[in-house]
Amino acid sequence: MSADFNSIANYWKETYSKNSEETKKYEHSAQFKKMADLMAPGKSYYYIANFQSLEIEMISDSVCNFIEKNRITDTEVDFQEILALALPEEIEKIKRKEQVIKDFFVDYLPINKVQDYKVLYTYVIKDSKGKRRVMLHQATTLSQDKEGRFVHVFSIHTDISHLTNQSVEEVSFLNIRGGKSYLNVPTKNGSFDPENHSDEGNIKNQLSKRELEITKLIAEGLNAEEIGEQLFISSHTVRTHRKNILKKTDSKNTIQLVARTIAAGLIQPDL
């Protein structure tokens, strides 16, 4: 593994593994695996990772669509192979995202709230066949140690290249129990500061219901005429909405807009 890739592994080790006690393998049921398969069909793969041993304890066969293996068992894939998929220029961005995640879960959230959140961010890989793919990473904590640090984490990685060709330097923390979510958190500084986080900065609060509908249809590849027909409005109105949406969200173009909306969990990849 290169020094770049090692920097992420070493960060995880320092953050989650240092002075940790030996942990048992996560006991997942057949029903859990069945549900995981339903949640991650098509161009995606999932795994359960132990962040204190930095080992992957269970992984879906579909990872073979991304790494250079035809068939695997749970112990045949490690973090090294997963991290090696990321483009070299993505590594520093991923590390900053992981630093924000650590700040949020370890330093900001109360211990009893950690498992209430799902984290989402996008990144770019090159698969074993040399194909560039934009991926959506979604993860939720399954277990913690007594200090509240991650032990077992369930992660899904989904190819969203059919929706956007770029990733964004943002992380979203989606409350899966209906509590407060923190969407489109910037990561360029590599830290989470609740004092600087504003609900006005997330796309969900910036867009009206109609604008979000239009954004979702843009993500599906529909043009102004097709969107207008589906929503029973004129193509001129659609173009006006699109212009306003880009301005409201400070997005350079619709590609960036879609990427940010996916990273906020507002658009689910259609697999």
TrEMBL record:
Keyword terms: DNA-binding, Transcription, Transcription regulation
InterPro entries: Sig_transdc_resp-reg_C-effctor (IPR016032), Tscrpt_reg_LuxR_C (IPR000792), WH-like_DNA-bd_sf (IPR036388)
PANTHER family to which the protein is assigned, alphabetical: DNA-BINDING TRANSCRIPTIONAL ACTIVATOR DEVR_DOSR
HTH luxR-type domain ranges (all copies): 200-265
Alphabetized Gene3D superfamilies for the sequence: PAS domain, Winged helix-like DNA-binding domain superfamily/Winged helix DNA-binding domain
Lineage, broadest ranks: Bacteria, Pseudomonadati, Bacteroidota, Flavobacteriia, Flavobacteriales
BP terms from Gene Ontology: regulation of DNA-templated transcription
CDD domains in alphabetical order: LuxR_C_like (cd06170)
GO molecular function, one term: DNA binding
Source organism of the structure: Salegentibacter mishustinae
UniProt xrefs under Pfam families: GerE (PF00196)
Name of protein: HTH luxR-type domain-containing protein
